[in-house]
Model the fold of this input.
Amino acid sequence: MDDLKYGTRDKRGNWSPNALAQIAPFWTGNFKEIGHWFLEYLWPWNAFHMATALLYWFFVIPDVATLKTLSWGWALWLFAVNAVCIFVMYGAVELFYYVKRKQGTRFKYNAKFPSEHPSDVFWFKSQNLDNFLRTYLVSIPLWTLCEVVSLWVFANGWATWLNWEDNWLWLSLLVLLVPAIHEVHFFCIHRLIHTPFLYKHVHSVHHNSINPSPWSSLSMHPVESALYFAEIFWHLIIPSNPIVMLFQLHGTGFGAINGHIGFDKLELTDEKALGSHAYVHYLHHKYFEVNYGADGLVPLDKWFGYWHDGSKEAEEQMKERFRKKKERVNAKASRSRVAG
Done:
């Protein structure tokens, strides 16, 4: 495919889309776009996460009697399934688009490939190896822990487990709201770990991957990973169902790759490509202090002044915000010196 039909490439070979990032159209009154937006909202990514949630529930999750008692057996079984599924999904994207480079740098935001740029900030000076190990040593165990605890609580009746027959309307609405729950939760914890102390000691681990790739998705400090996967505990507070909880969890675990693929589109054939929805979060990795949320379903970034849509106007607004922040920091430092 000719990526220059969809975007532009700068002198360094970095590609950016012509289309600017948009918040959900119902916030802007652009109601003519809602139908198209809703189809993209459902397909393919949310449909995929719901499909995997159903597959887990019917073929992977043990029966309720087993879930009532915590044991290493079923916990390790879930860890193994999570680990294998992530290896297959993330590994496939890594293999085809980063190792074999089946589409070269077409649609790639940053023209460089992490494997070609060793750095001391990573374990063994390798971003790929560092990210892979952190995924398997930190994030997947914590993912599984949150999953096990949630299933155990549901099985013992300590959370409100609604059945589909009597509560199909509410549960259907809740399914549609799952990405909104994710966006609000993610924005809040993400903004929190960008405060100076937590950024330095926690979130900087993830941001070492300035040029993210698939294995960067779940490469996190344990504190960040725990906060990230704690998102599913909302389903222990609100009336819900384990399948909806799994949908939330899979959108968090499997869906983390969306913002870190590094490509705007993944070419499937010469004429068809899969949109990644990665651009908004890529801009966050590039500029650090923009786009703390996700895709603008609940546009908290827009409301709080952190939104970057990829335009030159957003670039100037970001620079102005950085300038004012620097002035505040310098003024505070001056007052401290005078007081001292």
